[in-house]
Amino acid sequence: LHSVQQPPLHFLTLVPVSVMAACMTTSLVCISPSSAKLSNARVKRASVHSSTNRACITGARATLSSRFQVRGQGLQSATRRATVAARTSRFVVSAKNTIIAGAPASGKGTQCEGIVQNFGLVHISTGDMLRAAVKAGTDAGKSAKEYMDAGKLVPDEVIIAMVKDRLAEDDCKEKGWLLDGFPRTGAQAEALVEIGVFPECVILLDVPDEELIKRVVGRRSDPETGKIYHVDYFPPPPEVADRCIQRSDDTEEACRERLGYFYANLEAIKNAYSDKLVAINGNQDKALVGEAIKKAMA
Questions:
Q1: Using CA atoms, how far apart are residues 286 and 215, in angstroms rounded to an integer?
Q2: Could you give the C-alpha distances from 269 to 198, 245, 278, in angstroms and in order?
Q3: Is the pTM of this model over 0.85?
Q4: Is 98 helix (H, G, I), strand (E, B) or coil?
Q5: How far is CA 193 from the centre of its chain?
Q6: Most buried pick, 103, 107, 170, 215, via CB within 10 A?
Q7: Distance between CA atoms of residues 197 and 224, nearest Å
Q8: Alpha helix (H) ranges present in the chain?
Q9: Residue 280 in contact with residue 292, Cβ under 8 Å?
Q10: CB of 235 within 8 A of CB of 229?
Q11: What phi and psi, each to the nearest 5 degrees, are found at residue 12?
């Protein structure tokens, strides 16, 4: 036992602490004091050596722990950087030119928010474009207002020209686009083909008529933000409730008129995109609808 030497610190930092501790313990236990015939002085000296070794092991363990902690912090930092990079690049990888179709109040606007958030596409709503033109009082807006107030579709040539110009802008080319409520007729679908616009995915939201009418009649919009609320399903907060309005075409009569036009043109849309169309039940919780859309676009 008296021949056991104190190992240098740099050796301990290279050898696993658990192994070194086991070796030291084994050496001390296996040597019998009677067989070695140690004197009291030698026993005392061995005790000193043993204490010194334990101190060395403790120091080595602290050194390794410190090194692993630093390395762990570096790994955490690297993981955070990788996560940020993945989130930044996910839109480019996942982007798909998409059309979302459905009857009035089927939930297209709500689901478009989730699609934009998940895939980074540029949201293009023909309804928003038309209402902006009406609010601005442009010639196209004045012409469109007559049709909209009566619950009728705006002529194809007006819509097609607006959509064509919007899709030609740089953000749509770089990020991909999400067409909301267009095309609605077979002629509009053919017009997209003629200008070289082809969707990779077509989502069709399916909701019963009576539920659609209930959604339309109770719908309210904030003229300042454009956000849509519902008197029963999604009431506006008190601070904006007083300024919310009901659109002129959000009546039961106008809704039934628009539903007639929708169904008259639905088969043409289905035929145009039969190989890319995915029908989704829109008469369920909006989170479930969103998950179904996400799977369809993945």
A1: 13
A2: 13, 32, 12
A3: no
A4: strand
A5: 30
A6: 103
A7: 33
A8: 9-12, 17-30, 33-36, 40-94, 108-119, 126-136, 139-149, 156-167, 170-175, 186-194, 209-217, 238-241, 252-272, 286-297
A9: yes
A10: yes
A11: -65, -30
Task: Tell me the β-bridge partners of 219.
Answer: 230
- Return d(Cα 57, Cα 1) in angstroms, integer: 18
Tokens of 52: 């010194």
Low-confidence ranges of the chain (pLDDT < 50): 1-4, 6-50, 56-57, 60, 64-68, 70-94
Beta strands 201-206 and 277-281, pairing class: parallel
**What was the pLDDT predicted at 91?**
38
What integer pLDDT is reported at residue 49 of this predicted model? 47
Q: How far apart are CA 1 and CA 56, in angstroms?
A: 17
Q: Which residues are catalytic?
A: 108, 184, 219, 247, 258
Q: What are phi and psi of 182, to 5 degrees?
A: -145, 135
Looking only at the bridges linking them, the beta strands covering 219-221 and 228-230 are antiparallel
Give Cα 164 to chain centroid, integer Å. 28
57, two tokens: 């092991």
CA-based nearest residue to 159, from 127, 198, 137: 127
Please provide the average confidence, as pLDDT, over all residues in the chain. 76
Instruction: Return the axis-axis angle of helices 126-136 and 156-167, rounded to nearest 10°.
Output: 100
Question: What's the distance, CA 225 to chain centroid?
Answer: 23
Phi then psi for 291, rounded to 5 degrees?
Answer: -65, -40
Burial class (CB in 10 A: 0-12, 13-18, 19+), 17: middle
